[in-house]
Design brief:
Layout lengths: L1 E5 L19 H11 L4 E6 L17 H11 L4 E6 L6 H14 L4 E5 L5 H6 L7 H20 L3 E4 L4 E5 L11 E3 L4 H10 L2 E4 L4 H18 L7 E9 L3 H12 L4 H13 L23 E3 L1 H13 L4 E5 L3 H11 L1 H6 L1
Parallel strand pairs: 1-2, 1-11, 2-3, 3-4, 4-7, 7-8, 8-9, 9-10, 9-11
Antiparallel strand pairs: 5-6
């Protein structure tokens, strides 16, 4: 099992807690990556939003692609997995930018293709927010054309959304980036099965994970395509010296302080997503249902549960924690070695 972590581009991951000391700072994100790539973490996901999904519209958030470019230079070993929402990035210039970042990263750059869900953010930034199914159709043609620009010279493509005639892109990527993607709707899963190399999931119970992996494997097989390289999942981990202490922290971060703010944000998210699992109050205390996997307890308890997930087919965990650096380092020291030993 590979361990990755979410770069804290907006600081805290906690919706219900206002005193998390994790700053929204490039220096913090950079120093975190430099430290963690030598402590057992193999990749970092750089999420992309222009508004702060955790603390509200007025709170700060760093630009994902500027951060990802900086991390490509600042690190030596980490896979840099940058979220890419096609509506926010013109295709051909982005294909060239990726090729350049890939050279800077010496082949360690990958993309997480995201269809986008936040209609209010799109409105504020002047972006067209298409119907859910249309967003996936746009996403599929986007990556198809992008791969064409990376592979063919000159490149010609005439589709529903994009048209290129004898287009040149040089230099080509040092290594074609791995394309990760995640989605839960029927349209989302079927589309992702056609174009993605690896599949990412929100937090799941082990039984839910098994069903999802079996479903996605079957779709690839039915389409006659190569299997997914890896299945990954978002997790939020809480470890303490005793299970009682870990549960106390769990209660602290899941206690809603401002219900009106929480409810508005929750409705905004669920109303623009087509999910196959209900997002409960507890799940929405952090992002991406990270608490649903119940990785709460002593290091030994959490490691044992992670090994159960590994046996179920999970290959990558993308960890959230708070405060970010202190907890990720604790996980590196106390959990990762236990998982690696099996």
């Amino acid at each position: 099992m590979k361990f990755g972590y979410w770069s804290p581009v907006w600081g805290s991951w906690l919706r219900n807690v206002d005193d998390d000391p994790t700053p929204c700072s490039w220096e913090y994100v950079r120093d975190l990556a430099v430290s963690l790539e030598n402590k057992g973490y193999e990749l970092t996901l750089v999420p992309e939003l222009n508004l702060n999904d955790i603390k509200g519209h007025e709170a700060p958030v760093l630009d994902a692609w500027t951060v990802a470019t900086g991390l490509a230079v600042a690190t030596q070993k980490l896979e840099i997995l940058a979220a890419l929402r096609p509506q926010y990035h013109q295709l051909a210039p982005t294909a060239k930018r990726i090729a350049t970042i890939q050279e800077m990263a010496k082949g360690r750059f990958s993309i997480n293709l995201v269809s986008a869900w936040w209609q209010e953010e799109a409105r504020q930034y002047g972006i067209n927010f298409a119907h859910h199914d249309d967003r996936y159709g746009y996403e599929e043609e986007y990556i198809t054309a992008m791969r064409g620009l990376w592979r063919e010279t000159p490149f010609t493509h005439h589709g529903k959304y994009f048209n290129y005639e004898d287009s040149f892109l040089s230099p080509k990527p040092l290594r074609e980036p791995t394309v990760y993607a995640g989605g839960e709707s029927e349209v989302g899963r079927e589309t992702i099965a056609r174009f993605a190399d690896s599949y990412l999931m929100h937090g799941h119970t082990i039984d839910e994970l098994k069903v999802k992996i079996a479903d996605m494997k079957a779709r690839k097989e039915r389409l006659g395509l190569d299997p997914f390289r890896v299945f990954g999942m978002a997790v939020y981990i809480i470890i303490r010296d005793s299970e009682k202490e870990a549960r106390k922290e769990y209660e602290r971060i899941t206690t809603i302080q401002n219900y009106e703010r929480w409810e508005n944000s929750h409705k905004n998210f669920t109303g623009n997503s087509t999910l196959d699992v209900e997002v409960a109050r507890v799940d929405y205390s952090v992002t991406n249902r990270g608490l649903r996997s119940n990785l709460v307890g002593t290091p030994e308890q959490v490691a044992e549960r992670l090994l159960e997930y590994q046996d179920a087919g999970l290959g990558v965990v993308l960890v959230q924690s708070a405060p970010v650096r202190e907890e990720l380092e604790r996980i590196a020291e106390q959990v990762i070695p236990l998982v690696n030993k099996g």
